[in-house]
Design brief:
There is one protein chain. By secondary structure, the protein is an alpha/beta fold. The chain has 16 helices and twelve strands. It is globular. About 0% of the residues have low confidence.
Protein backbone atom coordinates (compact mmCIF):
# COMPACT_ATOMS: atom_id res chain seq x y z
CA UNK A 1 0.00 0.00 0.00
CA UNK A 2 2.76 2.58 0.79
CA UNK A 3 4.37 1.88 -2.59
CA UNK A 4 1.00 2.22 -4.35
CA UNK A 5 0.40 5.53 -2.57
CA UNK A 6 3.76 6.88 -3.70
CA UNK A 7 2.95 5.95 -7.30
CA UNK A 8 -0.56 7.39 -7.03
CA UNK A 9 0.74 10.72 -5.73
CA UNK A 10 2.54 11.24 -9.03
CA UNK A 11 -0.66 10.91 -11.07
CA UNK A 12 -3.80 13.00 -11.61
CA UNK A 13 -5.78 10.36 -9.68
CA UNK A 14 -4.28 11.21 -6.27
CA UNK A 15 -6.35 14.29 -5.44
CA UNK A 16 -9.74 12.65 -6.24
CA UNK A 17 -8.62 9.63 -4.18
CA UNK A 18 -7.62 11.89 -1.28
CA UNK A 19 -10.86 13.90 -1.50
CA UNK A 20 -12.98 10.73 -1.41
CA UNK A 21 -11.04 9.36 1.55
CA UNK A 22 -11.34 12.63 3.45
CA UNK A 23 -15.09 12.78 2.73
CA UNK A 24 -15.69 9.47 4.51
CA UNK A 25 -13.26 10.32 7.32
CA UNK A 26 -15.06 13.65 7.71
CA UNK A 27 -18.48 12.00 7.97
CA UNK A 28 -17.21 9.68 10.70
CA UNK A 29 -15.62 12.60 12.56
CA UNK A 30 -18.85 14.67 12.41
CA UNK A 31 -20.77 11.73 13.86
CA UNK A 32 -18.14 11.38 16.58
CA UNK A 33 -18.27 15.08 17.44
CA UNK A 34 -22.05 14.94 17.96
CA UNK A 35 -21.62 12.23 20.59
CA UNK A 36 -18.65 14.09 22.09
CA UNK A 37 -20.35 17.45 22.54
CA UNK A 38 -23.56 15.93 23.87
CA UNK A 39 -22.25 13.46 26.45
CA UNK A 40 -18.45 13.28 26.21
CA UNK A 41 -18.66 9.86 24.61
CA UNK A 42 -16.57 8.88 21.58
CA UNK A 43 -17.12 5.99 19.18
CA UNK A 44 -14.57 3.22 19.46
CA UNK A 45 -11.58 4.17 17.28
CA UNK A 46 -9.74 2.02 14.75
CA UNK A 47 -6.48 3.93 15.16
CA UNK A 48 -4.44 4.32 18.36
CA UNK A 49 -1.15 6.00 19.23
CA UNK A 50 1.31 4.03 21.33
CA UNK A 51 4.47 5.24 23.06
CA UNK A 52 6.53 2.02 23.34
CA UNK A 53 9.31 3.66 25.37
CA UNK A 54 10.27 6.82 27.22
CA UNK A 55 13.95 6.32 26.36
CA UNK A 56 15.76 8.52 23.84
CA UNK A 57 19.33 8.96 22.58
CA UNK A 58 18.97 12.69 21.88
CA UNK A 59 18.51 15.70 24.17
CA UNK A 60 16.19 17.95 22.18
CA UNK A 61 15.74 21.47 23.48
CA UNK A 62 11.93 21.49 23.10
CA UNK A 63 11.28 17.88 24.20
CA UNK A 64 8.20 17.33 26.40
CA UNK A 65 9.33 13.80 27.40
CA UNK A 66 12.22 14.82 29.68
CA UNK A 67 9.92 15.11 32.65
CA UNK A 68 8.53 11.65 31.94
CA UNK A 69 12.01 10.09 31.72
CA UNK A 70 13.00 11.69 35.01
CA UNK A 71 10.28 9.66 36.75
CA UNK A 72 12.17 6.48 35.84
CA UNK A 73 9.10 4.38 35.03
CA UNK A 74 9.69 0.98 33.47
CA UNK A 75 8.54 0.32 29.88
CA UNK A 76 6.11 -2.48 29.14
CA UNK A 77 7.62 -5.87 28.33
CA UNK A 78 7.13 -7.35 24.87
CA UNK A 79 4.71 -9.92 26.29
CA UNK A 80 2.57 -7.23 27.94
CA UNK A 81 2.49 -5.24 24.67
CA UNK A 82 1.33 -8.34 22.82
CA UNK A 83 -1.35 -8.93 25.44
CA UNK A 84 -2.70 -5.40 25.11
CA UNK A 85 -2.82 -5.31 21.31
CA UNK A 86 -4.22 -8.80 20.94
CA UNK A 87 -7.19 -7.70 23.04
CA UNK A 88 -7.48 -4.32 21.27
CA UNK A 89 -7.59 -5.95 17.87
CA UNK A 90 -10.09 -8.60 18.96
CA UNK A 91 -12.42 -6.29 20.87
CA UNK A 92 -12.07 -2.94 19.07
CA UNK A 93 -10.91 -4.08 15.60
CA UNK A 94 -7.92 -1.72 15.75
CA UNK A 95 -6.34 -1.58 12.29
CA UNK A 96 -3.64 1.10 12.63
CA UNK A 97 -1.10 2.03 15.30
CA UNK A 98 1.18 5.07 15.33
CA UNK A 99 4.38 4.28 17.23
CA UNK A 100 5.73 7.50 18.67
CA UNK A 101 8.54 8.26 21.13
CA UNK A 102 10.67 9.39 22.83
CA UNK A 103 12.65 7.25 20.32
CA UNK A 104 10.96 4.02 19.24
CA UNK A 105 14.20 2.41 18.01
CA UNK A 106 15.63 2.55 21.54
CA UNK A 107 13.64 -0.64 22.11
CA UNK A 108 15.77 -3.64 21.05
CA UNK A 109 12.54 -5.54 20.33
CA UNK A 110 10.94 -2.85 18.15
CA UNK A 111 10.95 -5.08 15.06
CA UNK A 112 9.26 -7.87 17.01
CA UNK A 113 6.56 -5.38 18.06
CA UNK A 114 6.01 -4.23 14.47
CA UNK A 115 5.95 -7.83 13.19
CA UNK A 116 3.46 -8.89 15.86
CA UNK A 117 1.15 -6.00 14.98
CA UNK A 118 1.44 -7.10 11.35
CA UNK A 119 0.43 -10.64 12.33
CA UNK A 120 -2.72 -9.11 13.86
CA UNK A 121 -3.45 -7.27 10.59
CA UNK A 122 -2.52 -3.89 12.08
CA UNK A 123 -0.77 -1.22 9.99
CA UNK A 124 2.00 0.81 11.60
CA UNK A 125 3.21 4.41 11.24
CA UNK A 126 6.59 5.19 12.83
CA UNK A 127 7.79 8.54 14.17
CA UNK A 128 11.57 8.58 14.72
CA UNK A 129 14.56 10.89 14.96
CA UNK A 130 16.20 8.62 12.39
CA UNK A 131 19.57 8.28 14.13
CA UNK A 132 19.19 4.57 14.86
CA UNK A 133 18.21 3.45 11.36
CA UNK A 134 21.35 2.22 9.63
CA UNK A 135 22.81 -0.29 7.17
CA UNK A 136 22.76 -2.97 9.86
CA UNK A 137 18.99 -2.89 10.45
CA UNK A 138 17.50 -1.43 7.26
CA UNK A 139 16.69 -4.86 5.84
CA UNK A 140 14.73 -5.70 9.00
CA UNK A 141 12.76 -2.50 8.51
CA UNK A 142 12.10 -3.28 4.85
CA UNK A 143 10.88 -6.70 5.89
CA UNK A 144 8.05 -5.09 7.91
CA UNK A 145 5.37 -4.96 5.22
CA UNK A 146 2.74 -3.41 7.50
CA UNK A 147 4.54 -0.07 7.79
CA UNK A 148 2.50 2.68 6.09
CA UNK A 149 5.02 5.48 6.55
CA UNK A 150 7.87 7.02 8.50
CA UNK A 151 8.03 10.47 10.05
CA UNK A 152 11.38 12.19 10.70
CA UNK A 153 12.41 15.50 12.27
CA UNK A 154 14.89 17.98 10.79
CA UNK A 155 15.14 21.40 12.39
CA UNK A 156 17.94 23.05 10.45
CA UNK A 157 21.22 22.62 8.56
CA UNK A 158 23.84 20.38 10.18
CA UNK A 159 25.24 22.55 12.98
CA UNK A 160 21.86 24.00 13.94
CA UNK A 161 20.05 20.66 13.88
CA UNK A 162 22.74 19.11 16.07
CA UNK A 163 22.53 22.04 18.47
CA UNK A 164 18.73 21.79 18.79
CA UNK A 165 18.78 18.00 19.05
CA UNK A 166 21.64 17.89 21.55
CA UNK A 167 23.99 15.46 19.79
CA UNK A 168 26.82 16.06 17.28
CA UNK A 169 25.83 12.99 15.24
CA UNK A 170 22.10 13.78 14.90
CA UNK A 171 22.20 15.36 11.41
CA UNK A 172 24.52 12.89 9.68
CA UNK A 173 22.69 9.85 11.00
CA UNK A 174 19.32 11.32 10.06
CA UNK A 175 20.50 12.00 6.50
CA UNK A 176 21.75 8.40 6.29
CA UNK A 177 18.32 7.17 7.42
CA UNK A 178 16.56 9.30 4.78
CA UNK A 179 18.80 7.88 2.07
CA UNK A 180 18.16 4.31 3.24
CA UNK A 181 14.38 4.62 3.49
CA UNK A 182 13.19 7.07 0.83
CA UNK A 183 12.86 4.47 -1.95
CA UNK A 184 10.94 1.95 0.15
CA UNK A 185 8.64 3.97 2.40
CA UNK A 186 6.34 6.98 2.34
CA UNK A 187 8.26 9.67 4.24
CA UNK A 188 7.34 12.94 5.93
CA UNK A 189 9.89 15.28 7.48
CA UNK A 190 8.85 17.74 10.17
CA UNK A 191 10.44 20.94 11.48
CA UNK A 192 9.49 22.74 14.68
CA UNK A 193 9.26 26.47 13.98
CA UNK A 194 11.30 28.33 16.61
CA UNK A 195 13.49 31.35 17.12
CA UNK A 196 16.70 29.47 16.29
CA UNK A 197 15.62 28.15 12.88
CA UNK A 198 13.04 30.59 11.49
CA UNK A 199 15.65 32.01 9.08
CA UNK A 200 16.81 28.54 7.99
CA UNK A 201 13.53 26.82 7.08
CA UNK A 202 13.88 27.55 3.36
CA UNK A 203 17.34 25.99 3.53
CA UNK A 204 15.87 22.87 5.10
CA UNK A 205 13.13 22.73 2.47
CA UNK A 206 15.61 22.96 -0.41
CA UNK A 207 17.76 20.26 1.19
CA UNK A 208 14.76 17.93 1.41
CA UNK A 209 13.88 18.61 -2.21
CA UNK A 210 17.44 17.71 -3.24
CA UNK A 211 17.15 14.49 -1.24
CA UNK A 212 13.95 13.52 -3.06
CA UNK A 213 11.62 14.09 -0.10
CA UNK A 214 8.25 15.49 -1.17
CA UNK A 215 6.30 15.94 2.11
CA UNK A 216 7.45 18.65 4.52
CA UNK A 217 5.48 19.42 7.67
CA UNK A 218 5.87 22.42 9.97
CA UNK A 219 4.57 22.88 13.48
CA UNK A 220 5.01 25.64 16.02
CA UNK A 221 6.99 25.33 19.21
CA UNK A 222 4.66 24.94 22.18
CA UNK A 223 5.06 27.91 24.51
CA UNK A 224 3.15 28.40 27.74
CA UNK A 225 3.61 30.58 30.80
CA UNK A 226 3.64 29.38 34.43
CA UNK A 227 0.24 31.10 34.77
CA UNK A 228 -1.10 29.09 31.80
CA UNK A 229 0.04 25.86 33.46
CA UNK A 230 -1.45 26.89 36.80
CA UNK A 231 -4.82 27.63 35.18
CA UNK A 232 -4.79 24.33 33.25
CA UNK A 233 -4.07 22.34 36.41
CA UNK A 234 -6.85 24.08 38.31
CA UNK A 235 -9.30 23.77 35.41
CA UNK A 236 -8.80 20.02 34.99
CA UNK A 237 -7.73 19.08 38.53
CA UNK A 238 -4.30 17.95 37.30
CA UNK A 239 -1.39 16.84 39.45
CA UNK A 240 2.09 18.31 39.07
CA UNK A 241 3.32 15.43 36.87
CA UNK A 242 0.12 15.38 34.77
CA UNK A 243 1.29 18.33 32.67
CA UNK A 244 4.43 17.94 30.56
CA UNK A 245 5.34 21.34 29.17
CA UNK A 246 8.24 23.74 29.61
CA UNK A 247 7.08 27.14 30.78
CA UNK A 248 8.54 30.58 30.20
CA UNK A 249 7.40 34.00 31.38
CA UNK A 250 6.96 35.45 27.88
CA UNK A 251 4.75 33.37 25.58
CA UNK A 252 5.18 35.59 22.49
CA UNK A 253 7.28 34.38 19.57
CA UNK A 254 10.44 36.42 18.97
CA UNK A 255 9.69 36.68 15.22
CA UNK A 256 6.76 38.37 13.52
CA UNK A 257 3.90 36.68 11.69
CA UNK A 258 4.74 38.74 8.59
CA UNK A 259 8.20 37.17 8.54
CA UNK A 260 6.78 33.67 8.76
CA UNK A 261 4.30 34.48 5.99
CA UNK A 262 7.16 35.58 3.71
CA UNK A 263 9.02 32.33 4.41
CA UNK A 264 5.93 30.23 3.69
CA UNK A 265 5.50 32.03 0.37
CA UNK A 266 9.11 31.20 -0.45
CA UNK A 267 8.52 27.52 0.39
CA UNK A 268 5.49 27.43 -1.94
CA UNK A 269 7.79 28.22 -4.86
CA UNK A 270 9.78 25.01 -4.39
CA UNK A 271 8.29 22.72 -7.02
CA UNK A 272 7.58 19.14 -6.01
CA UNK A 273 7.59 19.87 -2.29
CA UNK A 274 4.28 19.64 -0.39
CA UNK A 275 4.43 21.97 2.61
CA UNK A 276 1.84 21.71 5.38
CA UNK A 277 1.55 23.60 8.66
CA UNK A 278 0.10 21.73 11.60
CA UNK A 279 -2.48 22.47 12.83
CA UNK A 280 -4.36 23.41 9.68
CA UNK A 281 -6.53 25.78 11.75
CA UNK A 282 -3.55 28.15 11.39
CA UNK A 283 -4.55 28.76 7.75
CA UNK A 284 -8.03 29.97 8.81
CA UNK A 285 -7.00 32.05 11.82
CA UNK A 286 -3.29 32.89 11.43
CA UNK A 287 -3.25 35.99 13.64
CA UNK A 288 -5.26 34.44 16.46
CA UNK A 289 -3.17 31.27 16.41
CA UNK A 290 0.18 33.04 16.18
CA UNK A 291 -0.66 35.39 19.05
CA UNK A 292 -2.02 32.61 21.25
CA UNK A 293 -5.56 34.01 21.21
CA UNK A 294 -7.51 31.21 19.52
CA UNK A 295 -9.40 30.34 22.70
CA UNK A 296 -10.79 33.88 22.84
CA UNK A 297 -12.08 33.91 19.26
CA UNK A 298 -12.76 30.37 18.05
CA UNK A 299 -14.68 27.36 19.40
CA UNK A 300 -12.01 24.68 19.61
CA UNK A 301 -11.69 20.95 19.85
CA UNK A 302 -8.71 18.66 20.20
CA UNK A 303 -7.98 15.70 17.92
CA UNK A 304 -6.84 13.72 20.97
CA UNK A 305 -10.43 13.70 22.19
CA UNK A 306 -11.18 11.25 19.37
CA UNK A 307 -8.00 9.14 19.29
CA UNK A 308 -6.59 7.18 22.24
CA UNK A 309 -2.97 7.43 23.32
CA UNK A 310 -1.30 4.61 25.26
CA UNK A 311 1.84 5.35 27.24
CA UNK A 312 4.86 3.11 27.78
CA UNK A 313 3.25 1.60 30.88
CA UNK A 314 0.06 0.54 29.08
CA UNK A 315 -2.11 3.34 30.47
CA UNK A 316 -4.49 5.50 28.45
CA UNK A 317 -3.43 9.16 28.77
CA UNK A 318 -5.05 12.19 27.21
CA UNK A 319 -2.28 13.59 25.01
CA UNK A 320 1.51 14.15 24.82
CA UNK A 321 1.25 17.20 27.09
CA UNK A 322 -1.65 16.38 29.39
CA UNK A 323 -0.33 13.11 30.79
CA UNK A 324 -3.21 12.38 33.14
CA UNK A 325 -3.89 8.63 33.20
CA UNK A 326 -7.41 7.21 33.02
CA UNK A 327 -6.72 3.52 33.52
CA UNK A 328 -4.43 0.63 32.64
CA UNK A 329 -5.19 -1.65 29.70
CA UNK A 330 -3.54 -4.43 31.69
CA UNK A 331 -6.28 -4.13 34.31
CA UNK A 332 -9.38 -2.82 32.50
CA UNK A 333 -11.15 -3.25 29.18
CA UNK A 334 -10.54 -0.50 26.64
CA UNK A 335 -14.19 0.62 26.42
CA UNK A 336 -14.43 0.75 30.22
CA UNK A 337 -11.67 3.37 30.21
CA UNK A 338 -12.32 5.12 26.89
CA UNK A 339 -15.98 5.90 27.58
CA UNK A 340 -15.88 5.58 31.34
CA UNK A 341 -17.30 8.34 33.51
CA UNK A 342 -13.94 9.94 34.30
CA UNK A 343 -12.86 10.30 30.69
CA UNK A 344 -16.28 11.47 29.47
CA UNK A 345 -16.40 14.16 32.16
CA UNK A 346 -12.82 15.18 31.32
CA UNK A 347 -13.70 15.69 27.64
CA UNK A 348 -16.81 17.69 28.50
CA UNK A 349 -14.82 19.88 30.89
CA UNK A 350 -12.30 20.59 28.13
CA UNK A 351 -15.08 21.57 25.72
CA UNK A 352 -16.86 23.73 28.29
CA UNK A 353 -13.61 25.65 28.93
CA UNK A 354 -12.70 25.79 25.22
CA UNK A 355 -9.64 23.66 26.07
CA UNK A 356 -6.89 25.06 28.34
CA UNK A 357 -4.40 27.94 28.13
CA UNK A 358 -1.52 25.51 27.44
CA UNK A 359 -3.42 24.17 24.40
CA UNK A 360 -3.43 27.50 22.56
CA UNK A 361 -0.63 26.63 20.11
CA UNK A 362 -0.86 22.85 19.99
CA UNK A 363 -0.52 21.05 16.64
CA UNK A 364 -3.61 18.96 17.47
CA UNK A 365 -6.13 21.82 17.52
CA UNK A 366 -9.26 21.79 15.42
CA UNK A 367 -12.33 24.00 15.07
CA UNK A 368 -15.81 23.04 16.21
CA UNK A 369 -18.11 23.74 13.29
CA UNK A 370 -21.54 25.16 14.06
Amino acid sequence: MPKMRRILKKTCLYQPFKNTRNFFIGRQEIKNLKFLEKEGRVLSPRHVTFEPTTKCNLDCRMCYQKQERALGKEDLSLEKIKEIFKRLQAEQKINKVSLIGAEVFMRPDIFEIIDYLGDLGIKVYLQTNGTLINKQNINQLRHCKNITGLGFSLDGPKELHNQIRGQAYAFDKLMEALALTKNDFSLTVNSVIMEENIDRLAEVARLLKEEGISDYSLQFEMIATPKDAEHARAMLDLGESDLAIDCQENDAYSFKLSKLTEILEELKKIKGLNVLIQPTIFYRHPKLYFNGLLRQGVKLRCKDMLAPRINAQGEIIFCPFIKKTFGSLLEQDFEEIWNGREMREFRLKLLQNNLTPVCKRCCRLGERQE
